[in-house]
Write a structure and sequence with these properties.
3 copies of one chain form a homotrimer.
Chain A (H helix, E strand, L loop, with lengths): L2 H10 L17 H19 L11 E6 L5 H13 L2 E4 L13 H7 L4 E8 L6 H17 L8 E7 L4 H15 L9 E5 L11 H10 L5 E5 L8 H14 L2 E5 L2 H5 L4 E4 L5 H12 L3 H16 L8 H4 L8 E2 L19 H16 L1 H13 L3 H11 L7
Parallel strand pairs in A: 1-2, 1-3, 3-4, 5-6, 5-8, 6-7, 8-9
Helix pairs in contact in A: 1-2, 1-15, 2-6, 2-14, 2-15, 3-14, 4-5, 6-7, 6-13, 6-14, 7-8, 10-11
Chain lengths: ~400, ~400, ~400
């Protein structure tokens, strides 16, 4: 679509994102989700046309990674830099937080000249999203009380419940692969558990996928070995979404059966909900022996499901034997990154470049979340950038 | 005050800060301290008015934290970013400094395109400030010999003697709380030791406070249990300052008595001077057993003074039962961040937001130290920013 | 030389550097090497004249240090900042790379909005340069397949074979010390092994020096104790270069004899090639005992050559008793950074400032490698900066 037309279309959507944190996709309206997709697409286009997207002359974007990250760390850094912000890491080991500082206090201390805080906190069930809201409340208070000149926006870079920058990048990928959001209606997407030789992988990706894709009339198939369920409340959200959007939602326990006639497959390992609960308790109690014991049990359990590998045999039952394969990366690729894993090497290779393209939307999704948090009328802002036409790289 | 008038007033003060490192407040004239306060205030105002304060189109600000930090790290990053500089951390563990590189050499190696170096070195008595001066001398040589195109300015981000970015932020807080520096004349400020379950806290904050506040005609009460003295030479400086400025200086050993009629209280734990001396020797000798032994003795000693908690009982004897409570944060809050600590939770809560506001001046104080180091006529520079009126965030 | 004239001269050289990674100096033509020297000189001059060199309004420069670094880390950060890019570290410990992610994947994941990747990988013989090429191939694929909007340029920040940012900075130093590249013709440079109390130092500096300096008609003397040879293929390259450029190449095993009539000396420790091979195997096998055993053997061997210290006695046989002393720093200085080392303290002191000046070219060499990778006609680009005349620091 022509960029001018795209901006005009965007201008018709009324944003509810202004001054709101982006914590869970299911707290956002369909319109708001569409705005994010459109703004991300426009930012990507502007950058590819060498048009500067700097809206900030200075300012900090704080990243608080409480778990490892490559993709999301670089996506956050890229988005911040794109808009003109400098990234400052809150490295809790190098800080005085171990001194017994409260979240409330830290949130303010890092925010005097900050515009955004990106948080990843996905290790503890029941904790990550709660922590983000605690930070949010603290920032609200700090802003209200005149401590902070600006209320920094929060972007959820993965929590125990959702991974919205991932699922929105995935949605943008689907929109581009199938031509439009409308075209997703009636498509079958299989969010499937897959075998991995590691344990304790977060639930946020599968939860994020079923809760988001169910809003666009898709037929969601959630497949996992018995006992590998997700957080029940989020499954309920997905069910309700599917009903409302005219799609469907089904749970099954056989990978191959689930794949039948799938348009899209997302095979990915995760730890069972009840195991994550136990793990959270043990982690909080710093019970090392308990954790080792749990890991042993889990790995033994996982090993019973090595047949949950996405391979040619399963691909063959999908629509046209060629369902779109998706993954948040890095995938556990059999015989490449591990002996036996989530996906067969040949199958992965066939879709590898597409998974890279999928990942490449994330910086722009984060940029869109920032832009819409800070500017009431995103279409006007982007039109302004286009008209200003400052070059990102000298020509 | 109107911003124009403020700039005019500032223009009347003749700066002695140009091309001078900021290492100790007692090396600076009262006029220079006032200039720092004024420039900090103006930078804060400009930023709140969305006026860009970028004076540097590019350039590095090096941070060298030899001890943990959150507040000061973010304050330094914020100030650097505000003025247009990118922060580069000198992480001594990731460098080749362990190779046996000299300070003289490192100082030059990191400075080829640097404009400022911020240093925190507060662990060893007799070492931190000395290290900063060694860096300073090396930079002088490098600049003189044509190695460096610019002599980077040094900002003391806390040493064994002083914590000038903290004490100056505290002074700006007091100026704003009491309306003017003049109004501080005759006010009683109690810098008091307080109980903490940790040991080995630096002396730089209490030393910085008594040495700075004594210059503005305040009545300084330094209170601590017998044996918890500060570096004698700095106490002498505070005494002399008080005499010169028409204030007073008194040392006492009973927390509640000390608080009587106080206008301002600053209850904060520190390690006794003579313990810090022993600790320095043990640290340098890498004597782990000795350090453990010392810690045990210290904690036992500290535990004898758990009544040195700032609480309602002590508050009740202060001026109007409502002295301004100050702290550099994070405070050891009883029943919040530790079982028994420096301050009662209810009392802290009453002043919590004010301590956040106090902390919020630090980025601007650092920015002012940088600006005045680099520009001879700060008033003209700020007036230039105001007239240029470039927006920090697109509107 | 006048800056205008310098730019005109540069315009006469036809660059082959555009869109090419800088991995090994011996892959580049003499013209290209001259272009790097000229662009570096011009960037240095522009910056010293307070002219902004920002060519990028935003964009990331990724640093991937697989070994410690101070000088090169700061040089890369400085160069990136000079051109307008923000540095983002790829810290492999904080990433998900340990998850078993492929190089191919990581290379793309960090590059969605990146303009350059600087890599140091010098620990394993046969690995570092190979790794860089693997990254390069991955970026080529990503760019070709539409994953990346820009193909980020790679700068070799030291590998197992070459250390081109160092050797090119050294060459620029020589050009300035001797007046021109032409004047280097016929000059004798001694790249000599020297004793160090540590072991396992990379071969990349001596290899880089002999392979580069041999291209300008210099007489290369490579001196080391028997058994301390370099990678034979690179020695062959240096020999062939010398022949072609009208210089000479000689290997000898007595430090003092080698120094006779030297114009330039570069005494520096390194580990023997065959030891590095063994070490690589042991490191890869994670054989701790084997590594300790090897270290012991090596240190014992090294200790037989403590007389390989550059001192007054050796200086006295050089041209005019005053050959230019060079070092990549940090040097192992006897009685300063170690008991017995590569160089006598008095001799080092005499040339210390010159070694700092030598090091100071590196940021500009890296800047020149970046600029020429991205812009086809460097002279035009630099002329554009000069004409634009935007100030780096407000005046």
């Amino acid at each position: 679509m022509d960029i001018k037309k795209r901006i005009e279309k965007l201008a018709e959507l009324k944003s509810g994102l202004y001054k709101k944190d982006f914590l869970l996709t299911w707290e956002k309206s369909e319109t708001d989700l569409k705005i994010i997709l459109e703004v991300a697409t426009l930012l990507k286009e502007l950058r590819e046309k060498n048009v500067s997207c700097r809206l900030f002359d200075s300012g900090l974007a704080i990243s608080n990674f409480r778990d490892n990250s490559t993709r999301t760390r670089f996506s956050f850094a890229s988005a911040s830099n794109l808009l003109g912000l400098a990234v400052q890491d809150l490295d809790e080991e190098k800080s005085q937080i171990s001194h017994g500082e409260t979240v409330r206090e830290t949130a303010n201390m890092i925010s005097f000249l900050s515009d955004f805080i990106g948080i990843r906190d996905d290790m503890f069930l029941g904790e990550g999203n709660k922590y983000m809201r605690e930070v949010a409340d603290s920032l609200d208070e700090g802003f209200k009380e005149g401590v902070l000149p600006v209320r920094p926006g929060i972007v959820n870079l993965q929590c125990d419940m959702d991974h919205p920058t991932q699922s929105m990048a995935d949605l943008l990928h689907l929109q581009n692969e199938f031509g439009s959001l409308k075209n997703l209606k009636g498509k079958k997407i299989v969010m499937s558990w897959a075998y991995s030789p590691s344990y304790g992988k977060p639930l946020s990706v599968p939860q994020g996928i079923i809760a988001l894709m169910s809003r666009f009339g898709m037929n969601i198939e959630l497949a996992y070995p018995e006992g590998y369920g997700l957080i029940p409340e989020i499954v309920d959200i997905a069910k309700a979404n599917a009903k409302k959007s005219g799609g469907s939602f089904n749970i099954s326990h056989n990978m191959k059966d689930a794949m039948k006639d799938a348009d899209i497959v997302y095979p990915k390992s995760w730890a069972p909900f009840h195991i994550m609960q136990q793990r959270t308790e043990l982690l909080m109690a710093k019970d090392k022996n308990g954790l080792q014991e749990l890991e042993k049990v889990c790995l033994t359990n996982n090993a019973k499901h090595k047949d949950w590998e996405y391979n040619q045999d399963k691909m063959n039952v999908t629509k046209g034997k060629n369902a779109l394969y998706m993954h948040c990366l890095p995938a556990d690729i059999s015989a490449v990154s591990c002996k036996e894993g989530e996906v067969n090497a040949d199958v992965f290779e066939k879709y590898r470049i597409k998974t890279y393209i999928e990942a490449g939307y994330k910086p722009y999704i984060i940029g869109a979340m920032m832009l819409t948090n800070r500017f009431k009328k995103p279409a006007e802002v982007i039109d302004g950038l286009l008209k200003q036409n400052k070059k990102r790289v000298t020509q």
